[in-house]
Amino acid sequence: MTKTRARLYRQLAPEGWERFGLSPTNKLVCLLILLAAFTAVIETEAGIRDAAPFVFDTLEAGFAILFTVEYLARIYAAGEDPRYGGIAGRLRYMLSWWALVDLLAILPFFLGFIAINNAFLLRLLRIVRLLRLSRLGRFSQAWSALAEAVKARMHELLLSLGLAGLLLLFSSACLYVVEAAHQPEAFGSVPRALWWSIATLTTVGYGDVTPITAWGKLFAGVTAIAGIGLIAMPTGILAAACSNAFQKKNAREEQ
Amino acid sequence: MTKTRARLYRQLAPEGWERFGLSPTNKLVCLLILLAAFTAVIETEAGIRDAAPFVFDTLEAGFAILFTVEYLARIYAAGEDPRYGGIAGRLRYMLSWWALVDLLAILPFFLGFIAINNAFLLRLLRIVRLLRLSRLGRFSQAWSALAEAVKARMHELLLSLGLAGLLLLFSSACLYVVEAAHQPEAFGSVPRALWWSIATLTTVGYGDVTPITAWGKLFAGVTAIAGIGLIAMPTGILAAACSNAFQKKNAREEQ
Amino acid sequence: MTKTRARLYRQLAPEGWERFGLSPTNKLVCLLILLAAFTAVIETEAGIRDAAPFVFDTLEAGFAILFTVEYLARIYAAGEDPRYGGIAGRLRYMLSWWALVDLLAILPFFLGFIAINNAFLLRLLRIVRLLRLSRLGRFSQAWSALAEAVKARMHELLLSLGLAGLLLLFSSACLYVVEAAHQPEAFGSVPRALWWSIATLTTVGYGDVTPITAWGKLFAGVTAIAGIGLIAMPTGILAAACSNAFQKKNAREEQ
Amino acid sequence: MTKTRARLYRQLAPEGWERFGLSPTNKLVCLLILLAAFTAVIETEAGIRDAAPFVFDTLEAGFAILFTVEYLARIYAAGEDPRYGGIAGRLRYMLSWWALVDLLAILPFFLGFIAINNAFLLRLLRIVRLLRLSRLGRFSQAWSALAEAVKARMHELLLSLGLAGLLLLFSSACLYVVEAAHQPEAFGSVPRALWWSIATLTTVGYGDVTPITAWGKLFAGVTAIAGIGLIAMPTGILAAACSNAFQKKNAREEQ
Question: Which residues does UniProt assign to the signal peptide (chains A, B, C, D) (predicted)?
Answer without folding.
Answer: none
